[in-house]
Every structure is written in C-alpha cells, then in structure tokens.
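User: Modeling request: complex.
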Amino acid sequence: MRDNKARLITLALVFGLSAWLVGYSAIGVKHQFGKRQFSDLEFNHMSHSGDIARGDDGKLVYVPDQTGEAEAATVAAANTASSGAGAKANAASTTKKTTVKPAVKGKAPAAPKSNAQKPAGEPAKGKKKPACPT
Amino acid sequence: MGSIITRAKKLRLYRFVTQVVSLILLNLQFLNIWLPNLTLSGMLGVCAPGFYCHGCPWATMACPLGLLVNFSKLGVFPVLALGTLGLFGALAGRFVCGWICPFGWLQDMLYKIRTRKFNMLPVLRYVKYAMLIVFVIGIPYMMGARMFGLSTSNRITFCDICPSGFLEALVPYASMGGWNTDSGLFSGFNSLFFVKAGITLGVILISVFIARGFCRMFCPLGAIFGLFNKFSLFRYNLTYQKCNSCGACAKVCPVEIDPVKEINDAECIRCYECTSTKHLKMGVK
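Assistant: Request completed. Predicted assembly structure:
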C-alpha cells in the first residue's frame, strides 16, 4: 500500500512534468536568431538539418546567416523564454550576442527547408555540409 | 498450454499489425510517390516515441535519440524530447519498444529466421545504459563544448554509429544517388562507411540469433523507457489466485525474463504475451 502510494506520487510527478515540458515546448519556447524567431518544433528540425550550429565562440548561430545565404544580421542566439528548466539551460549557452560579418544584402531570409525539398545532408551553396546524423 | 500458445499467437498478430501501422505513420512522406506536392515538414520537429531515423527520405517525425544527441551537442535542454519520452514512458513504460518501434519490428522479423537461437548474457543488459550516458549525452555534449579536444567534426556520437541511420538514411540516399559521393549523406566507401556497415551487420546478426538483441543490449531508448516500467500507469499485476508457478509466462516471454519473479522489470518490452497465461494481467493498479 505504501509502495503503491509512492508509485502514484512518482507517476503524478512524472506525468505532470512531462506534460508541462510538452506544453512549454509547444507554447513557451521561442528561439530568437536576429530578426528571426523559430518555434521549438522548427528549432528541433533545424538542429538535425544542420541549420543551427555552435560557432567558434561557443554561441549558437543560424548557419544560413553566417554563410551569406540570408541578409546579414547580428545573430543573437538567445532563447527568449523567460523561465523554466529549458530556458535556464538554453540561457546558459545562448544569451550572449555574436556579431557576424555582413553578407550579401537584399536577399530574403531563407526559411528552413523541409526534408522533401532538401535531402538531408545536401550542402547549400556556400554553406558548410550539415551535421547529418549518419 | 495449447490455449496459451493460441492466445500468444493472436497477441503476436495484433502486435505485428500495430508495428506495421506505426512504421507507415512514421514514414508518411512515402506518399510523395503519388502526391509529389505533399510536404509534412512541420512534423519533422515533432518527437516520435520510437527509435528510427529522421534522416530517412520518408521520415515524418524526429528520432528522440537524434534529438537528444543534437541538443547535447548544441548545449540546449531538449524540452520536447524529454517531455514526449516522459509521457509515453509514464503511460506504459517500454510499451513503445514492443508495439511501436520500427527497429524493434525489424528485429522481430529477423528473429523469425529459422536457425539456432541463443540466450543473452544477463550482464550485457547494462551496456545500453553506458551507450545512453556515453554516446547520446556525454560525448555529444563534450563535442559541443569542445572538451578534451573533441569538436563537432568528430564522428563518434550515437547517430554516427546508429544501425537504424545506416539502413534508413544512408543506404536509401546513396542508392538514390547511384552510390555517388555527391549524393549528400554518402561520402564514399571510406573507413567510416565500413565501421557503420560492420555495426549494422553485427546488429542484424545478433537479432537473428538473440531475440531483440539490440533492444536488450544496446538501445539507449530502451534504457530510458525501462526506467518507467516500475511505476508506469499501465503495468503488470500478478493474479495470485491463478498463479501456480508453472513457468508458462517465462516460456512465452520473448526477452527471457520470468515475468512472475521479475514483474515489471526494466527489460520487459510490454509485449503482453505473458498475459496469455492469464496468470498476469495488465492494469492501472
């Protein structure tokens, strides 16, 4: 009986925390890179398509910005979420701003491409080969 | 015993159907064959519960292990991946391994090959926890943080040695590109390719001879879900009135555990085949 009580408490905590994490990801987490803001789902996709990487200074950068595909910008890899475990973890690695050299102007920012449009691992022009899982 | 086997076979059929449906749902982009304009790119950020490769040309969702590896590399907290794994795990533990995981289905099919079968050394079950800590979290994080001279160009994370990635992403892309080195994922028949091919071949061979060999020895996702088995909402309960310690549950268990002695063990993949003896039942109690 006592074991079952402990189990139910653990279960409630894990369910609650997990549901909060999923909800927080869906609503609360926004990833800011310069003028662009990505939802957590977009960020998840970009993390494995190679569009997000750690720069030499250890800050997160949006790779198309750095390689001149998009309009040059000051890349702020800051997670704007103001609270929560995710925000704290993100903030530790992403709050400082990194200035990137200006690239070709007048070109519209490239939106993240789907895997149907862009085969995983296909290097874009002037873009380093994505860090592909395989 | 005859009726137990009949019930177990029926459960196996249900499980097979569910696994095939999951395989289709996780690779819905195959509809491009008939619907070229269909893109499900918005789904690619959604974390799938099962182990497969989001690098697959037909992938609908993201692999949870791939997300954990990439987020460890970036030094970002994997909010969605942990939330999704927590929800599925808290619901029914390793249910995903038994009923949803496409790689588990592949191993089930491989184990049907008629040949001599072997039991797994019990100590090998702990390898998967080491895989989780070292190759999914530790090394990718150290690579991102450039610790110990590791950089993101090093190819020693779990994704780099993943047999699922080799089968579902590298082989399809390389085949589509005529095994040309310009075809994206395929960088030629170099040492890395042969390492991956060797690991994949090893996993296939293990799965032929040992039931769910990869899941039980190496799968980091199995290690994560196994942690939930003890307290998940749906779990096995022993019906004491009916249990006569006949050992029938252990005989039908595909992962070689004794469901009576090790009830809700971390190795249990929740295939429900032991419930065919009616000495155990699944419930929320």
